[in-house]
Structure prediction request, 224 residues.
Amino acid sequence: MKKVLITSALSLTFLTGCAGQVKPHKIQATDGSSLEVATTFALTDMNNNRYADSKLRVVEPVHSGTGMGLAIMSAVLGGGIRTGDFDKENYKGSSIDAMPEPTALYFGPKAEHKIQDWLSKNGGGYAYTQPLKIAAAQWSLVYTDMSATNSNYDLTYRVQFYKRPEGGNLLSAFVVAECAPTRVTAPLSDWKANNYAKVTQETQKMMDACLLELDNQLPRLLKK
Prediction:
């Protein structure tokens, strides 16, 4: 078990390490305003000590006995174990290789258009010096009730937006916002049907809702 935990932790470290190296690219508005934006994965210390899901994570009741939490694996790297690490939301579960996390491909381009529109109306020609991060945080199907013979499963999607204040430096605290739409519940068979078509459909609805939340948060995130 120890070997499995260490291997998994190292692979997840590689994932978050790669995510941290994503280079922002510049969004240019019609009035000359500009902002660098990067779509990436949430870092563990900004994600309640959880590793971000790079693929759809499915947690079944069996994982409550065999699959220790994602946050527990961070203890191998010195994160420590907390009571909340035993929450089913933290269980490693199984990753669905055919379902890569969709934030970069679906949410990111739509968010950039929204940011560009906002800058054109509110940027005043200002060139921002601190990049904005769009960070995928959680994408999972987790059993609703372990006591049920055939439990429903809850689809969860979370994304974070964060940016250091203008004039700040590497030690400045991030301005952070998070979007976590209401979970959608359905039988696992419904979620799996037609290559997880319902997962894709409902997740896109959640991401569309998060576009509205991003729009609401831009004045705070992009305060000069």
User: Anything to note?
Assistant: Residues 1-21, 66-85 have pLDDT under 50 and may be disordered.
